Each structure stands twice: as C-alpha cells, then as structure tokens.
Amino acid sequence: MDIKRVAIDAVNEVIVLTVPHMDYKGQVAKRINEKMPLATVKGFRKGAVPKALVEKQYGAVIKIEEVMKVVDLALQRYIQTERLNLLGTPLLKQNENFSWENEELIFEYEVGLAPQFEINLEAENSIVKYQIIADETMLNGQVARIQKQYGAVISKDVVSEGNDVSGSFENQTAGIKNRTTIDLEEFADATVASSFIGKKVGDVINLNTKGLFHDAHKLMDYLAVSHDDVHDLNVDVTFTIDEVVAHEPATLNQELFDKVFGEGKISTLDELKAKIKEDAEKQFEKQAEQKLMVDVQDFLIESHNFELPKEFLIKWLQTVGDKKLSPSEAEVEYNRSEKGLRFQLIEGKALAESDIKVNFQDLKDFTTNSIRQQMAQFGNMNPTDQEVEGIVARVLSNQEEVKRMSEQVVAAKMLKLFVEKANPTTKEVTYEEFVKAMYNE
C-alpha cells in the first residue's frame, strides 16, 4: 500500500492511501471460501452453491469489509508513525469517480492538524487581581438583614412602609414569569415604592423594567432574566401580590449573637461586624479568584493568535454525536467551543514545556479539600478528620475518580502557573465595584 500526505495549508492536509489488489484479495478469497458451506441460493442445496454464485451474491460486501479493515488499520498506524497531532478524526472525501469494481482503490482522508505556535506566559497585560473589601455600608446592611431574618414576622393584609411583598412579575410576551419577595426599598424610584402602599393581597400593579431598581442587575434576581438583557430591558410588567409581611427587627443582644454564631463566640456589635467581614471576604476571595482565572484564560487566548482548521472541524462536527448536525448547527457548535479549544491547546503546550507533576500527596490534599467543601454545602461545616479521611480513601480507591481528580489537580496547577507568570496588578475594591468590573461596566 502506498500512503502519502498532501499539504493544503499549515493546519489542513489530505492523506492518500492507494490500496492494490494484492493487499486484500487473499483475505477476500478466504472469506468467500468460508461462506460457501453456509451460502443459500434458491435452487441449490445449502453448501452446494457454485463458487461463482457465492462470489456474485456476497463478494461485493466482503470486499468492502476487508478493504476497509486494511485501510482503517493502515491509516491508524500511519498517523501514529508520523506522530500527527490531529484535531477531530480523519474524514473520508467523497470521490464521484471512485468505483469498488476497480482492483486498485484510492482513498483520500481530510485531516485537521493542531497548529504550531510559540507560547509566552509573561507577555505584557492589564490583568487585575481584585481584593474585595466588605465596607461599612455592606456591614451595616448585613447587620440589618440578620436582625430582619431573626426578627418576628407578622402577616399583613395591607402593604405599609417597611413591609416585604411577595408576588409574581409577569410579561408573557417577554417570557417573564417569576415569583419573588421584594423589599420596597429596592425600587430606585420612591414613587414606585409608594404605589404599593395600601395595596392588598391579590392586587395587581403595573410597572416598567427600565430603571426599576438601584442596580439593574437586580432584574436577574427578581425577574429571572439573563445578564445580557438587564441593561436594555424596557418592558411593562405586572406584579401580582400574594403575601405581605412586616418584620420586627431582632434586638442586637447576646441571645441573637449566640443564635447566629454559636454560644459565646461574639458579644458586641463590633465583633459581629468583624465576623461578618471575615466570612464575607472569604467568599469574595473565591469570586475574585474565579474572575482572575477567567481573565487570565481570556488573555492567553487573545495573546496567542494561531490558525485552526475551522472548515474541517465544522464538517467533522456534523459526523459525531448521537444527533447529526446540519452545517449551520455545526458552525454554531464550533463557535461555541472554539474558545475552549484554543485554551486547551495553550494549556497542553504549557504543560508539555513545564515541569508540572502530580504526586499522591497533591491528589490526597485536593480530594480532601473537595470533600470538605461538598460536606459544607450540605450543612456539615465541621466534619471530623476521621469522617473525611474515610471518604477520601474510598474516592481514591476508584481508578476513574483518581483519573478525574488528577486532571483537576493538573488544571489547578496550570492555572496557578498562568497567574504567577501573568503577574497581575492587585486592586482593592468594594463588592459593588467588583460586580461592575466583572460585567465590564
């Protein structure tokens, strides 16, 4: 068999396989002979069918099967021998002049190649590492929320100032239908808030979404609309009241402190604020870290401009998966996944050029932290070491879990390396300033 590569451009090639008769005729003849005792043709006893008829009835199918076995194996070995770094899998080109009647058969496979590029993790950038501070305004707001949460709840028939109102926002045309509870102080316009005063359960209030709240992002919470829509959303909605409650704030005393944080943990308002600040800023660290990782990934993708075999990958996407995609659907899927593919290639090259390794202790520490976080999400904030170690041992006894965790450890180490190399500028911000930065506002 003759195999050769024909370069189209830097990331597209065609592999041409020429299969002579001698590469498959012996196996085809063997299969025909094996078929003869089992062949059934009308007018002949089983096993007594002439070979010429067996070849006529089964020869074409057998030839196709045997040739494709030879081609598939040769193609696989050739890719390995040539060490081709492919994106997707080879696609057989359709040839109108191809005929299975020919003794010498020619197959052409399109392939997409991973691009060659140099990696630079220390390029000049404007990446910011945000340090989110819980300011006094936030702390006072959190104290008020705690007092409200642990205070007495009184059901009301009529809306008064300071009440919370539950109900449903709705606009069928805009696809808005969401039940929520809202503090009247959330409304940006005092006139809107005052329009609720005196209303009863069952009453319907007409509102417009433009400038409805102090922060447009609140539309995401209260109306369940996407971030892409919040700033330009200007539609009329109805709000149907189904519950009204008044809150009598809890007194800031030792009983409240013990109830919220445990007996004897704090005893003054200043200690309460300090605890809120500590807990909030721990949560902010995670959010800031997530944004930093996204920003670093975006920077690496933007600063490494290499070509991808786009047309080939769109064509390839039409052939994979349970549901076959149309050309337009495949292009949408390609555009959706292109960014991830680019980062995957950058990450792979960086990993190949780095000295990053994963040892058992890395794996154990990562798994332990993951288990503790999962337990905390389900309310077990202080599991014993024995409990955690037992779960970790079970997880690490499963080879599939070990593989999955190892991949996550490598990804975490790679991101840490990327952040260190990027050397971002640290900037202190309030949470509101961070939200604006997160959405590029």
Architecture blueprint of SSEs:
Elements (H helix, E strand, L loop, with lengths): L1 E8 L2 E8 L5 H11 L15 H32 L3 E7 L12 E9 L14 E6 L2 H15 L1 E5 L7 E8 L4 E8 L6 H5 L9 E5 L9 H5 L4 H4 L5 E13 L5 H8 L7 H35 L6 H8 L9 H27 L6 H18 L7 H12 L2 H24 L2 E6 H8 L3
Helix pairs in contact: 1-2, 3-8, 8-10, 8-13, 9-10, 11-12, 11-13
Key structural traits:
441 residues, alpha+beta, four-stranded antiparallel β-sheet
Overview of the structural elements:
With 441 residues, this protein is of the alpha+beta class. The chain has helices at 25-35, 51-82, 136-150, 190-194, 218-222, 227-230, 254-261, 269-303, 310-317, 327-353, 360-377, 385-396, 399-422, 431-438, and strands at residues 2-9, 12-19, 86-92, 105-113, 128-133, 152-156, 164-171, 176-183, 204-208, 236-248, 425-430. Strands 6, 7, 8, 9 and 10 form a 5-stranded antiparallel β-sheet that branches. Strands 1-2-4-3 form a 4-stranded antiparallel β-sheet, with helices on both faces. A hairpin with a 2-residue loop joins strand 1 and strand 2. The longest helix is centred in the middle third of the chain and has 35 residues, at 269-303. The radius of gyration is 33 Å and the shape is elongated. The model has no long low-confidence stretch (mean pLDDT 90).
